[in-house]
Amino acid sequence: MSDKLILVLNCGSSSVKGAVLDSTNGDVLLSCLAEKLNLPDARIIFKVNGEKHTVSLAEKPNHTGAVEALMAELEARKLDKRIGAVGHRVVHGGERFKESCLIDDEVIKGIEECIMLAPLHNPAHLLGIRAAMSIFSHVPHAVVFDTAFHQSMPEHAYTYAVPRELYRKYGLRRYGAHGTSYRFVAAEAARLLGRSEEGLRLVIAHLGNGASIAASNSGKCRDTSMGLTPLEGLVMGTRSGDIDANVFPFLHNNAGLNIEQITDLLHKQSGLLGISELSNDCREIEEAAGKGHEGAKLALEVFAYRLAKYVASMSVAAGGLDALVFTGGIGENSDTIRSKTIGYLGFLGLTVDEKANLAARFGEGGIISQAGSTPLAMVIPTNEELMIAQDTAHLAGIE
Ligand code: ADP
């Protein structure tokens, strides 16, 4: 146990998620969620030892108000003096940030320069970083980028087959997402298998509301399914994933939709929601499918089939496959999706032990393939906060 704690912050445009962690053992001493920022009913909900309480942010309903309320809560619980550093999650670090780093003026400038690549996220992160740096001014602050893990992708994996000039002028290439989760899970997989990351070939599926998959070899990313933006790749809760780009002229000409409407349709009305015509929530869809709902059954099948196709192609990128790892809300909890996906992949040697598959739900994790079969199939609960806390502690010299 360390006597210095790490505050991890994840700031969105209308929310601030926070957690106070012991980076040596992952214990969470306090977590909070400020929501509805910039609205009259802005509030922050604290969770300590399983108990929740809410504080209104009506007087200062912005990021600064949220971080001030967090500081007041830490003071009241005598935790403020134990915070040794603050770690910030940042969605996009472009090509500039290949690893986590301590924040200085140059780093802030770099995050600003990546706004073009993450116009909704990076400005919100900067609001949070500025508020936190002024309120927790006595400790170092670090940033951990969701794109950093993917910076080891080879050029042939991140290059789109479009005029090269677009990459040079606008940085149009594949960047990926969920990198903090992949880094954590890749290291955990090696630890659980009792081997070094060196030479280990993994395909990791991070399946949450947003879903992506990545290939790693020796702990380095070789390819991933999300591209310039998080729209590409797998079927997601409300996002289409891969689709013919000509859907834009097609819907414009035939349905009279404009760019904004088609973009909204692909981001917010597609995926599991679009196919099932029911919900974006995998749990609800599984329940409905169990009762025979045709849309729900099709949604699960399209999700699993697309995922299986990607597992096969990511095995090419990883240079082979030692283990397929499932993580994220769906990956960790849905034995149905895991079983269906592996069902398409028998030709690679993948198998599922249904008893182990059921036992792996709800945070248990573990190997779910049949004894003696290779490649392995595994479930590993992700822990992005812990990864951010560990990077931050390391950069701040707290260990
Ligand atoms: P986010 O990307 O928002 O962090 P999560 O990783 O929390 O999302 O994943 C949310 C998804 O996990 C939802 O689709 C939810 O239905 C699914 N999920 C959670 N528990 C289960 C479960 N027991 N069975 C199937 N799906 C589940």
UniProtKB/TrEMBL annotation:
Binding residues for ATP: 17, 206-210, 281-283, 329-333
GO annotation terms (biological process): acetate metabolic process; acetyl-CoA biosynthetic process
Gene3D superfamilies attached to this UniProt entry: 3.30.420.40
EC id: 2.7.2.1
Enzyme active site: 146
An example Gene Ontology CC term for this record: cytosol
Top-level taxon: Bacteria
Subcellular location: Cytoplasm
Site (Transition state stabilizer): 178, 239
Cofactors demanded by this protein: Mg(2+); Mn(2+)
Note on cofactor: Mg(2+). Can also accept Mn(2+).
Keywords linked to the UniProt accession: ATP-binding, Cytoplasm, Kinase, Magnesium, Metal-binding, Nucleotide-binding, Transferase
Catalysed reactions, as listed in the record: acetate + ATP = acetyl phosphate + ADP
GO MF term set: acetate kinase activity; ATP binding; magnesium ion binding
UniProt-annotated binding residues for Mg(2+): 10, 384
Primary subcellular site in the record, as a coarse category: cytoplasm
PANTHER family: ACETATE KINASE
Family per record: Belongs to the acetokinase family.
Protein task: Catalyzes the formation of acetyl phosphate from acetate and ATP. Can also catalyze the reverse reaction.
Protein's name according to its UniProt entry: Acetate kinase
